[in-house]
């Protein structure tokens, strides 16, 4: 987030005001939101500059491709002239021009990525979505006092830490459950599945015993053989399944749902804290006249310097 605010940077020029809704512009102009306004304005300016540069580049590339098409047409006409023999020197000159034009297009095409606006557009959309949500009765936003980045921190080191924390988040999500939890869940499942054969009709009325039924449709039920098997061999089934659990369980890396939720929340807080440092470093670079590479998936709360109370 910005740590030095120029009051002139909080005013949106006409073209930016047209891109933003009047309600959003008014929201960012309120006291305490100067840093967020400056950041949105700065990134919109870079986005506008890149869009202009991209337009000029596309025109240059298009002109080169049209020129190449024209050369191919000239080559075809030179190789089959009307009323005269082909001129080898003319054909050679055109072929050389085709090679040069092809090389120029090959050189230009990879440069298109340098004018990419995807990251900035994605960031802009994410930020406006957060603000519009707050304006529309969603989660309110509390804007924080801008803070400088820690001494010695760089954008690269911040992003390396973010990448590592995101990997930690995936590790937590993939962590297995403890063997004890799995065994309790299996035991409960088998006990709920088990159903005895009802012999009361036999004892009281001499009828055939009633088998537990399972409904296969709204009008049809059939004997539930698995329920009877679980009733007869409940302990043995649990014993065998627990043996399998012991073989595949990894309690060293296992997490309960409660541990998973706690660890996930801790990592997400660390990611956001690091993204705030990254945003501060980006702003310092912008104030120094540099344009850093922006991450498309940066947290909009870090960019705007706000939080949900």
Tally of structural domains:
2
Radius of gyration: 34 Å
Figure out the total of helices.
12
| String of helices and strands | HHHHHEHHHEEHHHHE
In whole angstroms, the N-to-C terminal distance is: 18 Å
Oligomer: single chain
Low-confidence stretches: 1-8
- Structural class computed from helices and strand pairing: mainly alpha
The percentage of residues in β strands lies in: under 5%
What does the main sheet amount to?
A: 2 strands, antiparallel
The total strand number stands at 4
What is the residue-mean pLDDT, rounded to a whole number? 90
> Can you tell me the overall shape?
extended
The strand order across the widest sheet is 1-4
Describe the protein:
The protein is mainly alpha-helical and 309 residues long. The chain folds into 2 domains: 153 residues; 76 residues, no CATH class. It is built from 12 helices and 4 strands; from the N terminus they run αααααβαααββααααβ. It has a two-stranded antiparallel sheet. A hairpin with a 5-residue loop joins strand 2 and strand 3. The longest helix has 46 residues. The N terminus is likely disordered.
Task: Provide keyphrases for this structure.
mainly alpha; two-stranded antiparallel sheet; 12 helices; single chain; 4 strands; disordered N terminus; 309 residues
């Amino acid at each position: 987030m910005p740590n030095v605010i120029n009051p002139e940077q909080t005013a949106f020029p006409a073209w930016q005001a047209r891109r933003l809704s009047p309600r959003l512009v008014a929201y960012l102009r309120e006291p305490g939101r100067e840093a967020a306004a400056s950041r949105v304005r700065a990134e919109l300016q870079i986005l506008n500059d890149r869009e202009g540069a991209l337009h000029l580049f596309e025109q240059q590339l298009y002109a080169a491709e049209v020129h190449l098409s024209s050369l191919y047409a000239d080559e075809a006409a030179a190789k089959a002239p009307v009323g005269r023999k082909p001129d080898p020197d003319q054909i050679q000159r055109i072929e050389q021009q085709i090679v040069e034009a092809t090389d120029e297009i090959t050189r230009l095409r990879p440069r298109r990525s340098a004018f990419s606006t995807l990251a900035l557009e994605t960031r802009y959309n994410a930020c406006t979505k957060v603000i519009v949500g707050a304006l529309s009765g969603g989660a309110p936003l509390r804007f924080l006092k801008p803070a400088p980045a820690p001494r010695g921190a760089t954008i690269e080191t911040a992003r390396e830490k973010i990448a590592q924390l995101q990997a930690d988040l995936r590790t937590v999500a993939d962590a297995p459950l403890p063997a004890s939890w799995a065994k309790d869940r299996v035991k409960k499942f088998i006990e709920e599945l088990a159903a005895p054969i009802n012999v009361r009709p036999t004892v009281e009325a001499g009828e055939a015993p009633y088998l537990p039924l399972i409904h296969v449709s709204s009008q049809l039920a059939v004997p539930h053989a698995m329920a009877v098997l679980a009733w007869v061999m409940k302990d043995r089934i649990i014993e065998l399944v627990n043996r399998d659990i012991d073989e595949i369980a990894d309690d060293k890396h296992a997490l309960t749902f409660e541990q998973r939720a706690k660890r996930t929340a801790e990592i997400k807080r660390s990611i956001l804290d690091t993204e705030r440092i990254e945003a501060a470093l980006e702003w310092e670079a912008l104030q120094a006249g540099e344009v850093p590479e922006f991450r498309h998936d940066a947290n909009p709360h870090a960019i705007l310097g706000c939080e949900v109370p």
